[in-house]
Amino acid sequence: MTRLKLAARPRHLRTLLRDTSRKNVAGHDDEGDVYDLCVVGAGPVGVQSALSAATTFQKRVILVDAPRASGMHMNEATGEDLSLGSPTGLFSKALRDSSKTIRVSSLRGVGLGETSIWNEIVGNCVDLSTQNAQDTRRSLVSAGVSFVRGFGTFQASTKNSRRSDNASENIVEMTAKQDGGQGRHITISARNILIATGSKPFRPSNIPFDGVRLFDSDSINTLSFLPKSIAITGSGIIAIEYAKIFRNLGSDVTLIIRANSPCDALTKIGLDKDVAAALVSDLVQSGIKIQRGAQVKQFLVPEAAGDGTEHIGRLRQPIRLLLEARDGGSLPTGREDEISCDAYLAAVGRLSNSEKLGLDTAGIDVDKYGGIHVDNRLQTTCPNVYAAGDVVGHPFLASTGVAQGNAAVVAMFATKSSKIPRQLKCNPDNPRRCVCGTCQSGASFDPSSLVSNPSAFPTGIWSSPEAAFYGWNVQQAIDGGLDAGESKALYSECLRGRVFSPYGLLKLVFEKPAGRILGVHICGDDACELIHYGMELVKARRTIKDLTASLYSAITYHEMYRIAAQAALDRAGTRKRREAQPTQVWRQRPRVCSQESSTHPLTTSGILP
Hints:
The chain is 29% helix and 20% strand. By secondary structure, it is α/β, with parallel strands linked by helices. It folds into three domains: 2-86 and 125-200 and 352-412, 3-Layer(bba) Sandwich (FAD/NAD(P)-binding domain); 214-348, FAD/NAD(P)-binding domain, CATH 3.50.50; 455-569, Enolase-like, domain 1. The protein has a five-stranded parallel β-sheet with strand order 7-4-3-11-22, covered by helices on one side. Helix 2 crosses helix 4 (114-143). Pfam families: Pyr_redox_2 (PF07992), Pyr_redox_dim (PF02852). Residues 572-609 are annotated as: Disordered.
């Protein structure tokens, strides 16, 4: 048995979720009342885990929502919590959608003020967040999941709490405190706890974050004006996404990266080299400036003016960023060493959000970044306490976190009679040797692979264009002892691509000579949707020949799968065809990943087999 103490928030801030058989837990403090599972954290991982336990296993579940310290998580008009069930990146996704539908230049052209334009953009984001929160709330009510708002921490008495020979009877105490340390304490008893408190941005100590003009990747949600110029430090997924978002909104964008090559920085997080080159080339083509091998050594911020709504947006005095080389020296002669901008964003990584949980008092081990250590059942070093999602560390993806949460719930409650969906093993001849890294059944499945194995999850970058990948790239396959090859298709080689989005590529990685597909890598429109078909190809052990015989609905991007497969089987013919039509298929762009090359990776020299 696991026992928690929680502090309830005032009634007007409480979400009225009710258990169908008992009154709302926020008004219930009977310490003898036992839940099967208490989930701490109401992001996508916590919510989906709670729903899985309540619906699949018919367990009694309570969800504890830890209030977020930053971010646009409240609807000021209604007082409604917008963060319920939403990933940390929801704001960026909503802002991205707004940047594609709202023409800022047109609004300026008809005389609309900057404040009105920004209010229109933020209004769209609030509407999307509100709809997501309301849908989540309805799902929890329907499943009979109880809900309480508070922040839980393990207490010092945890180590000395009652323990039984039966692990299911161990008692752990947690206390949740309302913001400011006040609020009524409620004791909740549960047989299992799942920690799903997510992550927080890494905040370098030399940056004077103020939440007005200098932001991290969470507090950017509170931006109150549309900057005419913004500087972003970072070379990862979040930095790339925001760079394209603000550029699409008409801002001048400068991306500051410590690496000498932006492509090298992207390949380190898993992107294929050609996909990384195409993505970075698009950044440059759209007008985004990239400062390589640099870092900010000093921030010169003028005093804030006004209330941060109208006056800040019109502030004439810009922020000044003084740059230096990444090793602390001076930048090479001729390189710009000062940047002026209206706003600054540091998107330099995320850390597990575990420091305020009192994990050490419960004997729960963490790494140096705060990530909770879990075993192959996603159980922590404290019996009956599990963890999933960003709080366990890499890869910091909502989709992977949800899979981890579901795996933890299965570990808690599954029995031999439980009807759990089983997935096809990629290597049935030797089920203990998983080639794709994603087998989620039988002896080969290790839930911890969802943390450590980059082949075990699809990754998407919601930039414009999108980028996504699943499985191995060719070098990873070779390092894994396989004879691997790769083939490519361009968006401009399928009819839909020629009409709507000619710039982008799809790459297949396959095993020779059988042609079994090992990985898929995409850069272009709808890449984050197209990748799921590629994921199924890998998991189903489909081959290149299978794709050439497949039938796809006319005028769809999926035709590129067949085109890439044909390129693998007829490399000479593909080369001849592409050489004959270079001006129709490719557009020359400056190559940004190599200073020596003047061609883009999608030109004939880079794409031909």
